[in-house]
Amino acid sequence: MAQIIQGAYAQRNTDDHPPAYTPGYKTSVLRSPKNALISIAQTLTEVTAPHFREDQFGPKDNDLILNCAKDGLPIGERIIIHGYVRDQFGHPVKNALLEVWQANASGRYRHPNDQYIGTLDPNFGGCGRMLTDENGFYVFRTIKPGPYPWRNRINEWRPAHIHFSLIADGWAQRLISQLYFEGDTLIDSCPILKTVPSDEQRRALIALEDKSNFIEADSRCYRFDIHLRGRRATYFENDLT
Amino acid sequence: MNNRIFTQLHETPSQTGGPYVHIGLLPKQANIDVFKYNFDNQLVTDKTQGQRIRLEGQVFDGLGIPVRDVLIEIWQADANGVYPSKADTQGKKADGAFLGWGRTGADFDTGFWHFDTIKPGAVPGRKGSTQAPHIALALFARGINIGLHTRVYFDDEAEANANDPILNSIEWVKRRETLIARRQERDDQVVYRFDIHIQGDDETVFFDI
């Protein structure tokens, strides 16, 4: 078979995502466009993206347990999170930049604007990053974050969650989201998770307990797969350029 | 719907980057020193080809107040209009000293952001057309559920802008103006000012790409 010519990325299914204006999440009210987005036919600008090199990464970049440890280990539940990044057609997404950030075991962020009474951990930073491998696989190690309170309604609490960001093969795939943990009862009351319109898509953000991959006397494990938009192949006219 | 015999995956749904997006994406701005190599807003090195420019501005909410926790990324071609990406099919060699991508956060006090980069060359459009020089820009923040995509064009490229297929696809001609950055010179430096209005009367055009 001749070499495959790539066409455009499949259209983003807006019903699979939160709308911009979601009044239950109050900050969105003044930070959402009034006008409809303008959909464009993709060009080289939208189907290209930067490449990151392995040598830009340090050995502990994906180890949040050790990458900010100074005089000891951070306090909290030791967990490993792993999974695959694929496109919507099932193809592995290779060498994608996956970045993560989170609160510590107390639900406190290492950020100048976080004043929550939950205590900072001197041995925990809360950020990590990695590249997916040839199979789209990624793995990182961390402390399970605690839930934390925030001012939306006055007694609002986020479920435990880890933020993540992906830069892959095309600018059109750029994605930031959050993963949650199986069984957390706060999941059902979170106004941020409720911005996602369908139950099936909300479930797609919940990492599952992966018991057979627990490491005895050391760490538990969660499995979380990520799906990005995929490109169609072109077998007839190629209008991209 | 009940008789589907193939499955396709659904894209993972977006969620807001939240107010502490800097911890993961700009740890130095959160005073976290963890990585030996940090991504930033400097796209040029001594070896990068092309005209140096600074791109700067603020992002405003629906009340006209600067968004001081916004995170911005840009993606652009090199001085010859070639993307440093395997997916660029022009068959021309991209500038080896140019990543084409950068990331910054607005200042926590003033809301100003900037990038030091080069002015991109024109890039092919669809079906043999030519796009005016432009920079793709995405913003993420607390209150923004899905990253907002826009494009930055240049006011000293009026002729190219008039023929740009994407600008011309915006039916409301008046709204095209919101995508044009204004050139100024400051201490021998070329600066383009690009303010973004998320909501309201002079709302910036955002794209579904």
Automatic annotation (TrEMBL), chain A:
Keywords (A to Z) from UniProt: Dioxygenase, Oxidoreductase
Xref: SUPFAM superfamilies: Aromatic compound dioxygenase
One Pfam family per UniProt: Dioxygenase_C
Domain Intradiol ring-cleavage dioxygenases: 81-109
MF (Gene Ontology): ferric iron binding; protocatechuate 3,4-dioxygenase activity
Keyword match Ribonucleoprotein: no
GO biological process, one term: 3,4-dihydroxybenzoate catabolic process
Family, as annotated: Belongs to the intradiol ring-cleavage dioxygenase family.
Annotated protein name in UniProt: Protocatechuate 3,4-dioxygenase beta subunit
Automatic annotation (TrEMBL), chain B:
Alphabetized Gene3D superfamilies for the sequence: Aromatic compound dioxygenase
Alphabetical list of InterPro entries matching this protein: Intradiol_dOase_C (IPR000627), Intradiol_dOase_core (IPR015889), Intradiol_RC_Dioxygenase (IPR050770), Protocat_dOase_a (IPR012786)
Regions annotated as coiled coil: none
Domain of life of the native organism: Bacteria
Classification via Pfam families: Dioxygenase_C
Keyword annotations from UniProtKB, A to Z: Dioxygenase, Oxidoreductase
PANTHER family: DIOXYGENASE, PUTATIVE (AFU_ORTHOLOGUE AFUA_2G02910)-RELATED, PROTOCATECHUATE 3,4-DIOXYGENASE ALPHA CHAIN
GO molecular function annotation: ferric iron binding; protocatechuate 3,4-dioxygenase activity
Sequence similarity: Belongs to the intradiol ring-cleavage dioxygenase family.
Intradiol ring-cleavage dioxygenases domain location: 55-83
Name of the molecule in the record: Protocatechuate 3,4-dioxygenase alpha subunit
